[in-house]
Amino acid sequence: MLRRDFIASASLLAGGLITAPFTGNSESLSQQTAMPKLKKSLGYGMIQEDIPLLDKLKLVKDLGYDGVEFNSPVDVNLKELVAAKEQTGILLPSTVNKDHWSKPLSDPDPSGREFIINSITRSLEETKELGGDTVLVVPGVVNEKVSYETAFNTALESIRKLIPAVERTGVRIGLENVWNNFILSPMEAKNLVDTINHPLIGFYFDIGNVLRYGWPEHWIETLNSRIIKLHIKEFSRKKMNDEGLWKGVDVELTEGDIDWAAVMTALRKTNYKGEWITAEVKGGDRKRLAQVSEQMDKIISM
User: How many Å apart are CA 195 and CA 205, to the nearest integer?
Assistant: First the structure.
């Protein structure tokens, strides 16, 4: 189904914003188009207190987080998780499919692609049950055995096979930029989303992942409304150059090379409607998670 044929129902399925007609009042127009206040989330694995699930969700709620992102298919009982969500008031806006690295959508082996399509389908179903609206998916992997063109074509074919499950659940797929030698520029990311051409398939933009070969504010400008969710981490080019690639992310939020003021300006200019910004950094105990929450608040206020 093409974007133009599906857009009306998709806006409801994805929780799209429906605004009142413009009345001629400039203040009213500003209120309609303003970027919603960002909600803070974090990966469940970051919560490293040795306490039950319910208490973990209470903990992050007390620290100012609005949501938690789980890997999916989830390792905990879904009914227990839904009950904990309802008791704490924490939201579960998105999940991360946990199988897309071992068997990517671009796998040359048809059986591998079938496995990951089934896994992502299950993630879509679980996310709907949890009250979320997005599943993060790595679109493909390029390596010495899988060429860029092969990865693009097989990934595109696999994603299209997921469209019936996307439409059935009303849960979106957010394709994320990672260090997978694939989709290395914002123009490529834009082209991939536009080639798929479905309103419930967009981009889950990781702000920190692009700094090794670009600037996140440039990606935001190009991807624009295609961005449906945000991951946040820091990156230091100096640490990358001096200590190795993976050391680049071993730096506190606001203490690396990302121009967070430029990032927030770009998000406001593009009127980001995804609402959520989810931390993907080193976790820890209550004190550490409180520190990350404060760092996120500082960035959001820029």
Answer: 18
E-only strand ranges, the chain: 39-43, 67-72, 94-97, 134-137, 172-176, 201-206, 227-232, 276-279
Extended beta strands in 128-193, E state: 134-137, 172-176
Please report, to the nearest 10 degrees, the dihedral formed by the alpha carbons of residues 91, 44, 296, 97 taken in order: -80
Which residue reads 């974007």 in tokens? 3
Q: Any residues with CB less than 8 A from the CB of 78 and at least 6 apart, and which?
A: 126, 129, 130
Answer yes or no: pTM beyond 0.85.
Answer: yes
Q: Within a 13 Å sphere around the CA of 59, how many CA atoms are in the beta-carbon half?
A: 20
The DSSP bridge partners found for residue 284 are 47
pLDDT digits (tens, 9 = 90+) for 4-21: 444 444 444 444 433 333
**CATH 3.40.50.970 correct for 3-300:** no
| Closest among 253, 244, 243 to 289, alpha carbons compared | 253
**pLDDT, tens only, 165-215:** 999 999 999 999 999 999 999 999 999 999 999 999 999 999 999 999 999
The tokens describing 90, both together, are: 């924490």
C-alpha separations of 207 from 124, 178, 184, 215, 247 in Å: 24, 10, 13, 9, 16
Query: For the chain, which residues make up each domain, given as ranges?
Result: 3-300
Q: How far is CA 240 from the centre of its chain?
A: 24
**Of the candidates 261, 176, 260, 182, which has an alpha carbon nearest to the alpha carbon of residue 226?**
176
Cβ(97)–Cβ(72) below 8 Å: yes
User: Whose CA is closest to 85, among 119, 63, 64, 60?
Assistant: 60
